[in-house]
């Protein structure tokens, strides 16, 4: 019952890798989706965010105003830490519940946790394997500008706000180079899937 972490910086192609692993049969748990769900109207997490940062973080209907919250905490390390102290425990609990449910459905399942903030929040969890999606910062910035419509300043700021590439790569057991064509990325994922048991055994033997 291997539990695999998949991480990567913004616009690194991580979601493409996750979809390919799911197509091979992996059970993918999406951390970003969990974050959205634990912040739903009426949730304790959303109430705590409003109490900490003000009711201006809520839209008229009571949902989280993500743009307002982002504007409030972006670039403020202390504010980010306070937000993380609210959100991360709830995400950790819900992700653990989903891991357990996936293994209950299939004890031999490969469960992949698609998690952007692995380095920042969960690097020390007992992963069977850590996969890092990697493309150079200039490639990711071009994707943010061309595919997501950001200006260069905002794109650079988003990249700079995340863990540096060398820190992320330092915890990788497997690096998927996503800087080339899509077919090349998918080929690497297919190869990894075929070798997954061996890769997991090598990591386990090294620990």
TrEMBL record:
<dbReference type="GO" id="GO:0015937">
    <property type="term" value="P:coenzyme A biosynthetic process"/>
</dbReference>
<keyword id="KW-0963">Cytoplasm</keyword>
<keyword id="KW-0173">Coenzyme A biosynthesis</keyword>
<keyword id="KW-0067">ATP-binding</keyword>
<dbReference type="Pfam" id="PF01121">
    <property type="entry name" value="CoaE"/>
</dbReference>
<comment type="function">
    <text>Catalyzes the phosphorylation of the 3'-hydroxyl group of dephosphocoenzyme A to form coenzyme A.</text>
</comment>
<dbReference type="InterPro" id="IPR001977">
    <property type="entry name" value="Depp_CoAkinase"/>
</dbReference>
<keyword id="KW-0418">Kinase</keyword>
<feature type="binding site">
    <location>
        <begin position="11"/>
        <end position="16"/>
    </location>
    <ligand>
        <name>ATP</name>
    </ligand>
</feature>
<comment type="pathway">
    <text>Cofactor biosynthesis; coenzyme A biosynthesis; CoA from (R)-pantothenate: step 5/5.</text>
</comment>
<dbReference type="GO" id="GO:0005524">
    <property type="term" value="F:ATP binding"/>
</dbReference>
<protein>
    <recommendedName>
        <fullName>Dephospho-CoA kinase</fullName>
        <ecNumber>2.7.1.24</ecNumber>
    </recommendedName>
</protein>
<dbReference type="GO" id="GO:0005737">
    <property type="term" value="C:cytoplasm"/>
</dbReference>
<keyword id="KW-0547">Nucleotide-binding</keyword>
<keyword id="KW-0808">Transferase</keyword>
<comment type="similarity">
    <text>Belongs to the CoaE family.</text>
</comment>
<dbReference type="GO" id="GO:0004140">
    <property type="term" value="F:dephospho-CoA kinase activity"/>
</dbReference>
<dbReference type="InterPro" id="IPR027417">
    <property type="entry name" value="P-loop_NTPase"/>
</dbReference>
């Amino acid at each position: 019952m291997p539990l695999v972490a998949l991480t990567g910086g913004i616009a690194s192609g991580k979601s493409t890798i996750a979809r390919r692993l799911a197509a091979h049969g992996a059970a993918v748990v999406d951390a970003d989706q969990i974050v959205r769900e634990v912040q739903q109207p009426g949730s304790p997490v959303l109430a705590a965010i409003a109490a900490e940062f003000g009711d201006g973080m809520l839209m008229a209907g009571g949902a989280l105003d993500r743009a307002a919250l982002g504007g409030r905490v972006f670039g403020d390390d202390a504010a980010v830490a306070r937000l993380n102290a609210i959100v991360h425990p709830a995400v950790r609990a819900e992700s653990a519940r989903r891991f357990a449910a996936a293994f209950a459905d299939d004890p031999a399942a490969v469960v992949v946790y698609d998690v952007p903030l692995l380095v920042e929040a969960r690097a020390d969890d007992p992963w069977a394997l850590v996969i890092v999606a990697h493309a150079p910062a200039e490639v990711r910035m071009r994707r943010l500008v061309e595919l997501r419509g950001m200006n260069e300043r905002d794109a650079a700021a988003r990249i700079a706000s995340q863990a540096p590439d060398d820190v992320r790569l330092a915890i990788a057991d497997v690096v998927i180079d996503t800087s080339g064509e899509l077919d090349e990325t998918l080929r690497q994922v297919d190869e990894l899937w075929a070798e997954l048991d061996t890769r997991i055994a090598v990591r386990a033997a090294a620990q």
